[in-house]
Amino acid sequence: MTTTAPRTERALRLTVLVGESDGWHHRPVFTEIVHRAHRAGLSGASVFRGIEGFGASSMIHTQRLLSLSEDLPVAVVIVDREERIRAFLPLIEELVATGGMAVLDECEIVRFGSGDGDGDGDGGSQSNGFGGGEGEQGR
User: Fold this and answer.
1) At the N or C end, where does the chain have fewer CB atoms within 10 A?
2) Burial 57-90 (b: 16+ CB within 10 A, else e)
3) How far is C-alpha 112 from the geometric centre of its chain's CA atoms?
C-alpha cells in the first residue's frame, strides 16, 4: 500500500461571531451569512453554537441558566482563498455592524489521499476554488 503525502493550500479563515438571537429581516443573522456565502460561491460555511460566552454587553450567556440561554454565542466559519474571503467581507458588513465581530486567520488546507474527489483524476479543482466540490466544509 502506498501513501501519498498530503497536499496543502494557503487559505484564509473567516470566523463571524454573533448572538444566536441576532436577526436580519426576520431571519437569524448566522443563517443570512451562510446563504450569502453560498450565493457568493464560497467553498462552504459551518455554524457552531456556543455553550457559554459573553460579548459587547459583558453579560455571560450560558445554556446552564434558562434565563440567559436565549442568546448563546454562534460562530460562522468559512475557509476559502484569501481574495474570495476579502471580496465577501463587504457582503456581510451590514450584518455584523451592530454587534457582531469578524476575525480573519491565515491557515492551510490539508488534502489527504491521492485524488481530489472530482472524479477526473487530474488533481484539478472544481468551481469552488478548492477542489473539494460543493459543500465540502460544513456538511
Assistant:
1) N
2) eeeebbeeeeeeeebbbbbbbbbbbeebbeebee
3) 21
Inter-residue contact 81 to 88 (CB < 8 Å):
no
Integer CA distances (angstroms), 37 to 46, 50, 66, 77, 102, in order: 10, 21, 32, 10, 14
Q: What pLDDT score was predicted for residue 3? A: 76
Number of H helices, E strands in the chain: 2, 6
CA distances for 14 relative to 47, 84, 110, 113, 137, angstroms? 12, 11, 17, 26, 13
pTM of the model: 0.76
What pLDDT shows up at residue 72?
85
